[in-house]
């Protein structure tokens, strides 16, 4: 069975558009997420001769606060709707993909690294490129969306397809 | 920054309530089994385009377009898409996933931060390499057509409307052809 969300895809997308529109007006910038990760990394482990930090400092601080809010927002709604579950291995991972805890640790670690490294190569992620860039019809972001989707389709078919049940 | 934190809370609430922060929805999308995320993204882009192009025309806001360097953007996109399928989350959905108790996403955040540090170290080399390639300004689709003023707004909102219609077409196809 597919997990049925509390609000469906239409209203989720609609409210995301609305909140980004508000962010454009009151914050004079779009929603973004991936810059928070190198920013946090640079706070924890300062890199010498750093050319990157000055370029991302302002955006990184903004996105880190934004994502901290995102975390708290999700805690509140998941508790209110009783969808909070303290788990390490998602049920889907075990039941549908037939994979275990060790592979979840390995995949989460490898995937998280590629996710942020790729996003920083391209200058954005699902939020900054596909969502905020896509709604402005930015050429760069639409190109990113096509290649990210292609990369995901190829990888999913290579590693998950034959295990899926 | 309290205002940003509050805006983030609303964002996180929407992501969590729509289950857009779940591994099953990310992997399901790329296996073409559960198209919740692609549909929500198309609605967000479509409704967003209508709001942004109208708002810009009436002077409410300004565009913020990312630079177009096709080689780096395409390669980064491929690496990013691969990473997303493997980790099962997006950068903007990992904090929400942790918020609803999915601790594997916390590992994703830790390795993402490590990825960010290593990218910082490699940035001076990458930025000037063939992997990044040349930058061709920061155009939008409407710039490519050379549109300005009212025609820019009309075409922008029309493309936005097309995205919305496309989401409903995909929903219809999903119900018709995709068996879970």
From TrEMBL, chain A:
Membrane-spanning intervals of the chain: 7-26, 64-84, 105-123, 135-160
Protein's UniProt keywords contain Hydrolase: no
Chief localisation class: membrane
Domain of life: Bacteria
Keywords assigned: Cell inner membrane, Cell membrane, Membrane, Transmembrane, Transmembrane helix, Transport
Compartments where found: Cell inner membrane
DNA damage as UniProt keyword: no
Topological type in the membrane: Multi-pass membrane protein
Record-stated family: Belongs to the TsuA/YedE (TC 9.B.102) family.
Name under which the protein is recorded: YeeE/YedE family protein
């Amino acid at each position: 069975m597919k997990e049925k969300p509390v609000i469906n895809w239409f209203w989720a997308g609609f409210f995301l558009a609305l909140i980004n529109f508000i962010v454009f007006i009151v914050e004079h910038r779009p929603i973004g997420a991936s810059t928070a990760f190198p920013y946090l990394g640079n706070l924890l482990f300062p890199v010498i001769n750093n050319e990157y930090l000055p370029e991302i400092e302002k955006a990184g601080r903004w996105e880190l606060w934004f994502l901290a809010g995102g975390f708290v927002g999700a805690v509140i709604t998941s508790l209110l709707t009783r969808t909070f579950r303290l788990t390490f291995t998602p049920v889907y991972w075990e039941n549908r993909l037939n994979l275990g805890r060790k592979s979840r640790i390995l995949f989460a670690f490898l995937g998280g690294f590629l996710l942020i490294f790729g996003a920083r190569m391209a200058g954005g992620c699902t939020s900054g490129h596909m969502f905020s860039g896509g709604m402005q019809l930015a050429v760069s972001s639409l190109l990113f969306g096509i290649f990210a989707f292609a990369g995901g389709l190829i990888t999913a078919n290579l590693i998950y397809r034959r295990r899926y049940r | 920054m309290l205002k940003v934190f509050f805006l983030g809370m609303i964002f996180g609430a929407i992501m969590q309530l729509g289950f857009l922060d779940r591994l099953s929805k990310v992997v399901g999308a790329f296996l073409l089994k559960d198209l919740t995320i692609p549909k929500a993204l198309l609605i967000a882009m479509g409704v967003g385009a209508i709001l942004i192009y109208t708002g810009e025309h009436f002077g409410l806001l300004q565009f913020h377009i990312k630079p177009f360097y096709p080689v780096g953007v395409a390669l980064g996109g491929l690496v990013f898409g691969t990473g997303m399928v493997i980790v099962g989350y997006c950068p903007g959905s990992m904090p929400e996933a942790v918020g609803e108790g999915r601790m594997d996403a916390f590992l994703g955040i830790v390795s993402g931060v490590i990825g960010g540090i290593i990218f910082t170290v490699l940035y001076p080399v990458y930025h000037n390499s063939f992997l990044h390639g040349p930058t061709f300004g920061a155009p939008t689709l409407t710039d490519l057509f050379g549109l300005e003023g009212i025609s820019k707004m009309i075409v922008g909102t029309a493309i936005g409307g097309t995205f919305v219609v496309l989401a409903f077409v995909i929903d219809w196809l999903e119900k018709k052809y995709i068996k879970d």
